[in-house]
Amino acid sequence: MSLTPETTSDEQLVTVGTFTDLAGAGLAKSALESAGIPALLRSANANSLMPFAFESQVQVRVSDESAARELLESAEDTPPTEAEVTAAEETQETLSEEGTED
Predict the structure, then answer these.
(1) For bias kind Low complexity, which ranges apply (predicted)?
(2) How many whole angstroms from its chain centre is CA 61?
(3) DSSP-derived secondary structure letter, 63
(4) Phi-psi region of 99 (alpha: psi -120 to 50; beta: other; left: phi over 0)
(5) What is the distance between the alpha carbons of residues 26 and 59, in angstroms, rounded to a whole number?
(6) What whole-number distance in Å separates Cα of residue 16 and Cα of residue 62?
(7) 3-state secondary structure of 60
(8) pLDDT digits (tens, 9 = 90+) for 13-68
(9) Which of 45-49, 72-76, 94-98 holds the top average pLDDT?
(10) d(CA 63, CA 58)
(11) Alpha carbon distances (Å) from 70 to 12, 24, 39, 76, 102
(12) What is the pLDDT of residue 91?
């Protein structure tokens, strides 16, 4: 389940990760969503144009912050699975085709 700017207009979001590479941001978002934590990827378009000038942020609802941070910290020590890599690649392709909130 993904969060979108439209579905989160009344909700408070918090950034749980910042990435200079879009692939890393996509992996983090996919890992969170695989664990049932809805996530939003911000600034992906700007990052894809000038990766080292702009960072992409992965955001979650405030109520999911602790679980999201714990999951991302544990994921740093574990290589991504093939399914996570595929999901991240699909996220990156979708962002390239449709764009995202900047």
Answers:
(1) 77-89
(2) 12
(3) G
(4) left
(5) 12
(6) 10
(7) strand
(8) 999 999 888 888 888 999 999 999 999 988 755 545 555 667 889 999 999 999 99
(9) 72-76
(10) 15
(11) 19, 17, 14, 10, 26
(12) 73
Q: Go through 74-83 and write b for each residue having 16 or more CB atoms within 10 A of its CB, e for each that does not.
A: ebeeeebeee
pLDDT at 47: 46
List alpha helices for the chain, DSSP H: 22-34, 44-49, 65-76, 82-98
Name the token pair of 80: 């991504």
Comparing 33-37, 45-49, 78-82, 87-91, the range with the smallest average pLDDT is: 45-49
Letter for the amino acid at 67? A
Domain ranges of the chain: 13-97
